[in-house]
Each structure stands twice: as C-alpha cells, then as structure tokens.
Amino acid sequence: MLVTTPLPGFSGDFDHFGLDLKGKRLFLTAEDHKTVEVFNLMTGERLKSITGFGQPHAIVFLPETNNFIVTDGDGFGMVELVSGKDYSILDKIKLPPAVDGAIFNPVNKYYYVESGGNEPKGSTHLIT
C-alpha cells in the first residue's frame, strides 16, 4: 500500500526517520522546519508537529519506554529525550556544537552521537 501525505508549507527535506511499529507511528525530523513530525503509518495522517528543536537530525524510538531520542544541531549541540505519550521534551543533554548523525546500540543501550566540532569544514569529529 502506498500512502501519500501532502505537506504544504514545508521546505527542505526530512533528515532521518524513526519507527514505532507497535504504535504504528513514523517520526520524521524536519531540519528546516525545526520540528519532529509524527505520522500514522497506516493512513499517512499527520498526528503531531513537535516544536522546540533547533535543527533535529537523527532519531531513534525506544519501544520499551515509549520515548524517543533526537539529536539537535543548529550550532549548539543537544540530545533530547522526548515522550512518545504526550510528545513533551523530558530531558536534554548538552553536547559540543554541530551534532548530526547518531546510532543506538540496543545491546548496551548507548546512544552514540557524531559532532563536527567547531571547524567549518568538519575535519575533526567527536563521538560522544
């Protein structure tokens, strides 16, 4: 089944996706819009536009807690823990500027975040 959801007024791209199979939700990070968008996987309906981000990048859904983690760039560097129940930001961790990609290790439950550091061309990268 192919589902199309028009998004008038959006510019840019969706950087990363998160998936909640049990809740049938798709999470999309909209960098230019500074939001995380939540969609119904079955109907394509947009359920929520979550604000409060600078430049959301990577996202991972944690089914055992019904929360998700978002790396947030925009020059200040942050990782936010967001409630999957009411979509509020539960906690923040300050990181070096220019955070971008991330990956979650389900074995040890660590969330590794890549940062470009302060160099304009990003020749130095940190993993925190």
Molecular structure report:
The chain has no helices and 11 strands. With 128 residues, the protein is mainly beta. It has a 4-stranded antiparallel beta sheet, with no helix packed on it. Strands 5-6-7-8 form a 4-stranded antiparallel beta sheet, with no helix packed on it. A 3-stranded antiparallel beta sheet has the order 9-10-11, with no helix packed on it. The relative contact order is 0.14. The mean pLDDT is 86.
The parts where pLDDT drops under 50 for at least 5 residues are none
Helix content: under 10%
Radius of gyration: 15 Å
Please give the alpha-carbon distance between the first and last residues: 39 Å
Strand order of the largest sheet: 1-2-3-4
Mean pLDDT: 86
User: How many distinct beta strands?
Assistant: 11
From the helix content, strand content and strand pairing, which structural class follows? mainly beta
Which geometry do the CA atoms define? globular
Q: How many DSSP helices?
A: 0
Q: What can be said about the biggest beta sheet?
A: 4 strands, antiparallel
Which range does the strand content fall in?
A: over 45%
Order of helices and strands: EEEEEEEEEEE
List the helices and strands and how they pair.
Layout: E1 14-20, E2 25-30, E3 35-40, E4 46-50, E5 56-62, E6 67-72, E7 78-83, E8 89-94, E9 99-105, E10 110-115, E11 126-127
Antiparallel strand pairs: 1-2, 2-3, 3-4, 5-6, 6-7, 7-8, 9-10, 10-11
In short, what is this structure?
The chain is mainly β and 128 residues long. It has strands spanning 14-20, 25-30, 35-40, 46-50, 56-62, 67-72, 78-83, 89-94, 99-105, 110-115, 126-127. The chain has a 4-stranded antiparallel sheet, with no helix packed on it.
